[in-house]
From TrEMBL:
Keyword ATP-binding tagged: yes
The protein's name: Adenylate kinase
Keyword entries, A-Z: ATP-binding, Cytoplasm, Kinase, Nucleotide biosynthesis, Nucleotide-binding, Transferase
Lineage summary: Bacteria, Pseudomonadati, Bacteroidota, Flavobacteriia, Flavobacteriales
Chemical reaction(s) catalysed: AMP + ATP = 2 ADP
Organism of this sequence: Flavobacterium rivuli WB 3.3-2 = DSM 21788
Family named by the database record: Belongs to the adenylate kinase family.
SUPFAM superfamilies: P-loop containing nucleoside triphosphate hydrolases
Length: 190
């Protein structure tokens, strides 16, 4: 089983790349963004709680995110592997993911990070916001707040996964096919 954490700032292309990778490697794609949107759209208790944070450009608390993720993983017991998109975002979440996977006799195989300059990503998100309908993609101050949250809470995961020998940075700038090829080069060596 191969379990990949696809890592990167908002707008780095995780969702776009996940679509290609899940098909190529027969992985179950779990996007916390999709889980949040499902819960928000269906007005679930977890969705209502998550919305209060998302609307302010803040990260949703760990316990909410972890519960959503565990529920989704449990729906796919016979998968060839998972592609985690947007999770973990904090060291506490990484520890929770490791503990949860160990309970199933699995582990994170690799963390692959899409790296890109903040200014490029801000423009990507503002452009996406024109069609996505997401409030957090339409306001530059909210986007920059998300990056500040990322730098404070998520960037420490780089060291967490480096210490395990599971961190692989990939240039996230360029044509989509180019980036997919870079990601595949890493995955093919695992």
């Amino acid at each position: 089983m191969i379990n990949i954490v696809l890592f990167g700032k908002p707008g780095a292309g995780k969702g776009t790349q996940a679509e290609f990778l899940k098909t190529k490697y027969n992985l179950t794609h779990i996007s916390t963004g999709d889980l949040f949107r499902f819960n928000l759209k269906n007005d679930t208790a977890l969705g209502k709680l998550a919305k209060t944070y998302i609307d302010k450009g803040e990260l949703v608390p760990d316990e909410v995110t972890i519960k959503m993720l565990e529920d989704e993983v449990s729906k796919n017991p016979d998968t060839a592997g998972f592609l985690f998109d947007g999770f973990p975002r904090t060291t506490a979440q990484a520890n929770a993911l490791d503990a949860f996977l160990v309970s199933k006799e699995w582990e994170v195989t690799a963390t692959i990070a899409l790296e890109a300059d903040d200014e490029v990503l801000v423009q990507r998100l503002l452009e996406r916001g024109k069609t996505s309908g997401r409030a957090d993609d339409q306001d530059e101050s909210l986007i920059r707040n998300r990056y500040q949250e990322y730098n404070e809470k998520t960037a420490p995961l780089i060291e967490y996964y480096k210490a395990q020998g599971k961190y692989f940075p990939v240039n996230g700038i360029g044509e989509i096919a180019e980036i997919t090829s870079r990601l595949s080069s890493v995955i093919d060596t695992l």
